Every structure is written in C-alpha cells, then in structure tokens.
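Peroxisomal membrane protein PEX16
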Amino acid sequence: QSLPQQKLLTWLSVLECVEVFAEMGTARVWGEMGRWTIIVLIQLAKAILCLLLLLWYKAGIQTSPPIVPLNREQQQPLHPQDMEDNSSGKDQTYVGKRSSRVMRSLQSTPSLQSRHWGSPQQREESQSRRAEEMNQPPTPLGLQETIAESLYVTRPLLHLLSLGVWGQRSWKPWLLSAVLDISSLSLLSDLKDLNRRERAELRRRTILLLYYLLRSPFYDRYSEGRILLLLRLLADYVPGVGFVTRPLMDYLPAWQKIYFYNWG
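Tokens:
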C-alpha cells in the first residue's frame, strides 16, 4: 500500500472509532440539530474516503475495521536471552528416537514473557500463514462489483437523505436501505477467488442484515415486544442468563437512540 492509501485507511479507522462518541457528545452540547449535523458530516467523510480507496486506489472490497488490529503476540520481540540462544545455534527441538515426537529442547526454552504452547515449527507455520493472508492483494473488481461496492458505501448517505425527505417514522428510508444492502450483497455474490478478509467481510455484512429487525420503524411496530418477551422469558426461566438479558433489556432503548450503533 502506498503512503496516501495508508493515511486514508488511518483516517477512516479514526472516524469509525470516534463516531459514537462524537454523536453523543454533540447531542449533549448542541442538541438534536448538532447531533444530526455531525452524523451527516461523519458519514459524508467516510463515504468520500471509501470512494477514493475504491475508485482511485483500487482497494477492492472495504473491510471493517479498515486497518487490521495488531496481533501483539505475533509481533512480540524476542527476549535478549532468546536472541542469544538463537544466535549461538542451539537446537530448538529434540526428536524422540522411538516416538519420533518433536519436543522443545530444555536449553532453548524461551523466557516466560515470550513462551508459547506449541512447537517452533507450528508457530513459524502459523505466523507465515497469517502474514501471507494479510499480504494478499485485494481482488480486482469489475464494473458490476464496483457498482455493488459503491452502493454499499453510499447507502448511509442515501438513508440520511431519505430520512430528511420522508421523516424518521416513514418506512421508505428503512426499505431503501434494505434494498441497497441486499442489492450490493447480491451483486458481490458472483465474485470468485476472494481472499480471507474479503470473505469474512461479506459474511459480516450478511449477518448485519439482522439489524433490520432492530431498526425503526420495524423495531417499534413488530420486534420490540417479541424481543423483550424473549429476553424476559430467558431471564426468568434459564438460570444464570438473567445477568446478561436484564441489562440488555435496559440497554436496548438507549441503543436505539444512537444512530451509529443502529445504522452506522
């Protein structure tokens, strides 16, 4: 990735990290008008960054999060003692004569901070496989797939526009957003030879379609009573589940009011 592309991914990641805080903080200070203003600005900035990555840098399917979280265990540096052992050429493994079982040599046992419960070969194979998966180039998108990804990227803006035109109680924004999401997934389903991250992203988007059961006005008219009844039954009749379901019942109304939790 080029340096400008890395900067775009960094800014996109920052926006995804602070969007909920920005919405809640702005609502607290400037009220509903300020809240919807910051929502529009953040979604507009995210759409511009994603379209630049898609159309200019040919970054392929946009994944979430844009930057893969750092695997600290994989990136953990060797202890100085371990580096001395490696440089001295000590054997790291011992192969049993009768069982042919590979075991770690006592002389090359690493420090407690960098110790892991596997043979060195397994760790090296796992690290090389992860590095290969991370370094796979994005799958080239044709015209159909580019249109599909553009629909997914611009869906939040079209949803906000429809909210401004028809209001928050109308079914039209809900239906428009659902049609765009399903259309995008349908057009991308024909794409073959996706790498691991892209396949995981499409699975995530498919699972997120369940959010439409929790989005207004569908939630207000159909889902709310059934979901709360199910959570109440689980809390009353399944031992131990109430520790999770009762706070969830109290949290759902607040969760519903945050746009970036619900629609972002």
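The CA atoms of residues 18 and 42 lie 10 Å apart.
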